[in-house]
Design goal:
This protein has helices at 2-30, 56-62, 94-106, 178-188, 197-203, 209-212, 232-245, 257-268, 291-295, 306-326, 328-331; strands spanning 32-33, 36-40, 78-80, 85-89, 110-111, 116-125, 135-143, 147-149, 162-164, 173-175, 217-224, 250-254, 273-282. With 340 residues, the chain is α/β, with parallel strands linked by helices. The longest helix has 29 residues, at 2-30. Pfam families: NUP.
Length: 340
């Protein structure tokens, strides 16, 4: 009787293990190995066929025939093609975008162990550093919000109104992999960029040579803040913060980058993260224009070139995505050395 019970227990255990192994095998078969993940922050309407936001041009390039994959906790579905290029709209702002990305990264539907990440969106820029339609790769991501601020009249006249808060040193500044930034620039620096008559007319209001010039591909610090700061005063304060933190001058302002990079770093490291932003406005007004006028412009006074800018970003970014996928055997185990 004891042997019968023992053998029955063994058979039951073997059956459980067999069922478990079949379940694991099926789960592995359904797991998508991701080569490149593209994260955008918003789309204006549909994913195709209307006015494009940050996601539409990526969707039209890579996922026209893909089926949406719903992920619990994510702002929107994930899309993947047969080449292992996946992407999603993550939502605007640090909280929404980072929580959405974390849900995707923790989902068992995807294998991100060898993935490269491209964080993609629109941005503002100081007129001394970039112009409308430009596309800027990040070498540094900096959090604009982690610190102490006070009203100017409550401090020393002319002194900065910001002081870093201790305890955030590890999360307020993230340096991206210089080797990957170098690859990105080599692959994209000569990308033909679109421009528009409206953008040219708007740029002409600014005296700075860079602001008045045509769009270009460049590298610079991205400042991440949930606050849309405007005006030369806060722009100067942001440059003060950049110097305080020992990073390059800030080149663009955006709302998500450092938070998204932090989530990826916690789970997969930072070496394969890229951040790409296209400039759609200046973060301060032109001479004779008050900050409030710039923030809430009259009809006909807004910056042009939005449609061209979001197309430029996809033109630049796809060069890197396609190169990595095409040369996957060289890239899957790490960033290859670049031949000079």
């Amino acid at each position: 009787m004891v042997n019968i019970v023992f053998n029955a227990s063994r058979l039951l255990l073997m059956l459980v293990l067999l069922i478990s192994s079949v379940g694991i095998t099926r789960a592995q078969e359904n797991t998508i190995p991701v080569k490149v993940f593209i994260g955008a922050m918003f789309e204006i309407g549909a994913n195709s066929g209307d006015k494009a936001g940050e996601f539409q041009h990526w969707y039209e390039r890579y996922w026209r025939n893909a089926q949406p994959i719903k992920v619990r906790g994510a702002s929107g579905p994930v899309w993947c093609n047969q080449d292992g290029v996946c992407g999603a709209v993550l939502g605007m702002g640090k909280v929404r975008s980072s929580s959405s990305l974390q849900a995707i990264l923790l989902s068992d539907r995807f294998d991100f162990s060898k993935a490269y990440f491209m964080l993609s969106g629109v941005a503002g820029a100081p007129p001394t550093k970039a112009t409308i339609g430009s596309v800027i790769w990040a070498d540094w991501l900096v959090d604009y919000d982690l610190g102490h601020r006070w009203a100017a009249e409550e401090g020393r006249p002319g002194a900065p109104t910001f002081m870093p808060r201790k305890g955030y040193e590890d999360i307020r500044v993230i340096k991206l992999n210089p080797q990957l930034v170098d690859w990105a620039m080599v692959l994209t620096k000569d990308t033909p960029l679109l421009d528009s008559a409206a953008a040219k007319s708007y740029r002409a209001r600014y005296p700075q040579a860079i602001a008045r010039g045509g769009p270009f591909v460049g590298v610079g610090t991205h400042f991440t803040g949930d606050c849309f700061f405007h005006g030369p005063g806060l722009s100067a304060q942001a440059q003060y913060m950049a110097k305080l933190y020992g990073v390059d001058d800030y080149t663009v302002t955006e709302m998500e980058g450092v938070a998204l990079a932090y989530v990826i770093r916690q789970l997969y490291g930072i070496d394969r993260v890229m951040a790409l932003r296209t400039v759609v406005n200046f973060d301060q007004g032109s001479p004779g224009e008050t900050t409030l006028e710039h923030l809430d412009p009259a009809p006909g006074k807004t910056a042009g070139g939005f449609a061209e800018s979001v197309e430029n970003e996809a033109r630049v970014g796809e060069r890197v995505v396609d190169y990595i996928v095409t040369h996957w055997n060289e890239w899957k185990n790490g960033i290859p050395a670049r031949q000079s």
